[in-house]
């Protein structure tokens, strides 16, 4: 039996979350930035029997299951096995954003 693995990719707007996912899964990179407005779920063969979820920027990490399911963008976020936290090294605000999200994950998991 193969275990299912779920991975969430989180970060501020415009830091390249979707670009990283597409590079990893499809070995492609686009110079065009199209903002992610809704959660996207990828079902790659490379992650055995699992999926990768690309999330738009969230205001805060959900503190409980009720809050997680009340916000469409956060659905499934608390049940993932790993988080990939992405920030732009040239943008201090994106680092502060991901630092806050990381702290919220640690406090609620």
From TrEMBL:
Gene3D superfamilies listed in its UniProt record: P-loop containing nucleotide triphosphate hydrolases
Transmembrane segments: none
SUPFAM superfamilies reported in the protein's UniProt record: P-loop containing nucleoside triphosphate hydrolases
Keywords recorded for this protein, A-Z: Nucleotide-binding
Pfam (any one): Ras
Domain of life of the organism encoding this protein: Eukaryota
Listed GO MF terms: GTP binding; GTPase activity
PANTHER family: RAS LIKE FAMILY 10 MEMBER B (PTHR46350:SF2), RAS LIKE FAMILY 10 MEMBER B-RELATED (PTHR46350)
Protein name (Swiss-Prot/TrEMBL): Ras-like family member 10B
């Amino acid at each position: 039996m193969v275990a299912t693995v779920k991975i969430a990719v989180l970060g501020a707007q415009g830091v390249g979350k979707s670009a990283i996912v597409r590079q990893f899964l499809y070995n492609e990179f686009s110079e065009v930035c199209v903002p992610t407005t809704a959660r996207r779920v990828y079902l790659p063969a490379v992650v055995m029997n699992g999926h990768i979820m690309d999330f738009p920027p969230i205001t805060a990490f959900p503190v409980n299951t009720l809050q997680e399911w009340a916000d469409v963008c956060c659905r499934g976020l608390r049940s993932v096995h790993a988080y990939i936290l992405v920030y732009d090294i040239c943008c201090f605000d994106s680092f502060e954003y991901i630092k806050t999200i990381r702290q919220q994950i640690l406090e609620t998991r």
